[in-house]
Write a structure and sequence with these properties.
Strand order of the largest sheet: 1-2
Number of strands: 2
Shape: globular
Strand content: under 5%
Largest sheet: 2 strands, antiparallel
């Protein structure tokens, strides 16, 4: 990796965060004379940098994912308190994010504790700028993913409940159910010693090679649908959130990394090659015929 790349990554994340802060903060309530949305975006980055300090000194990644989930809870809770409206749309958005974060954070923390490490960080931790870039990118992840939710909660005028609230909640529920079910199925599969070096092809994993990521994308689409009626003008840019989640999980990390690792491990296994050929990467669908 070129020495300048981590610094470019940090700068790029900050620029993207600043642009989102400007767009989402173009309307909505203010905090101490500043757009509250922009203050919360800055706070999302600040939390990561504060958490990075002990992570660097103790060379640990164990609370990385948990910090991300806590940041979602913090910025969403603060948005709700600052907005002060506590109207149905804002409450549903805040509750949806809270349920998701309270489930995902501890789940990932326990998985890392059980495995002893997160293999993604083996070569990252000893490199200060790369490790810092990783934490900064997590700040960007929180900022861009939660953007429509925060903008909607901080809107100066509440959007009354309508069909978008119901439709978005249905999508969120579907996505959350798929993600939780897929994670539970894989956890049970990995808990069996006989499956130590095997790949899962049962349950939702028989219809998709990454059903948990499909669920993650769908639930954020649901939140964006709920938030949309409360957004105006430049705030509509925040609706890029589910597109960003899709790109992150399929093109940057997630699917791309896991598929590469699986291919290195099982590329000579005819059963695995057949599983890949017959099973969709993301969208759960009955396997293709032989």
């Amino acid at each position: 990796m070129p020495k300048s790349l981590p610094y470019m990554g940090i700068a790029g994340a900050l620029v993207a965060g600043a642009l989102m802060a400007a767009a989402g903060g173009s309307r909505g309530v203010e905090l101490m004379g500043l757009p509250a949305f922009a203050v919360l975006i800055a706070s999302a980055f600040a939390v990561q940098w504060i958490a990075f300090i002990p992570a660097w000194f103790f060379q640990t990644e164990r609370f990385f994912d948990l910090t991300g989930s806590i940041t979602f809870l913090v910025v969403t809770g603060c948005a709700l308190a600052i907005g002060g409206g506590f109207e149905p749309r804002s409450l549903v958005i805040a509750a949806a994010i809270a349920v998701w974060a309270l489930r995902l954070g501890p789940f990932l923390l326990l998985r890392v504790r059980k495995d002893g490490e997160d293999r993604r960080f083996r070569q990252i931790k000893p490199n200060f700028p790369v490790f810092l870039m990783t934490w900064t990118l997590q700040g960007l992840w929180v900022s861009l993913t939660a953007a429509p939710a925060l903008a909607a909660i901080l809107a100066t005028e509440a959007a009354p409940p309508d069909w978008t609230l119901a439709a978005g909640l249905v999508l969120w529920t579907l996505g959350f159910a798929v993600e939780v079910t897929a994670d539970a199925q894989k956890t049970r599969f990995r808990a069996s010693p006989e499956n130590r070096d095997r790949y899962i092809t049962s349950g939702l994993w028989a219809w998709s090679r990454h059903p948990n990521y499909f669920g993650e994308i769908v639930l954020w689409i649901g939140i964006a649908v709920i938030a949309a009626p409360a957004l105006e003008a430049w705030q509509l840019v925040t609706l890029v959130s589910p597109v960003f989640v899709w790109l992150l999980l399929t093109r940057i990390s997630g699917v791309r990394m896991l598929e590469a690792r699986a291919n290195r491990k099982w590329r000579d296994d005819p059963g695995y090659r057949d599983y890949v050929r017959r099973t969709n990467t993301l969208l759960p669908w009955p396997p293709r015929g032989t």
